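Database export, one record per block. Field names are fixed; values are copied verbatim from the stored entry.
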Amino acid sequence: MAFFKDFITRQLLKKQLKGVPEEQQEKIMNLIQKDPEFFKVIGEKIQEEIKKGKGQMEATMSVMKEHREKLAALLGESGFTK
């Protein structure tokens, strides 16, 4: 069952990341797989901010700022910044 869930998640991400280089897509997918619950919470919080009237970019930036320490740690662990 986990394989199926991972497959669906990867397919959805690929659709959303159209136009992003393949190497970057893979890094992003690996990053999300490291802590999927964290990214689920991030997504939910962004949606809440959008419902409050913020634009998507503003909502995303606001939520990312709230969680910048955890994001930085995950980015560093994944080698994303290299």
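Remark 1: The chain has a mean pLDDT of 84.
Remark 2: Residues 3 and 76 are 26 Å apart (CA to CA).
End of record.
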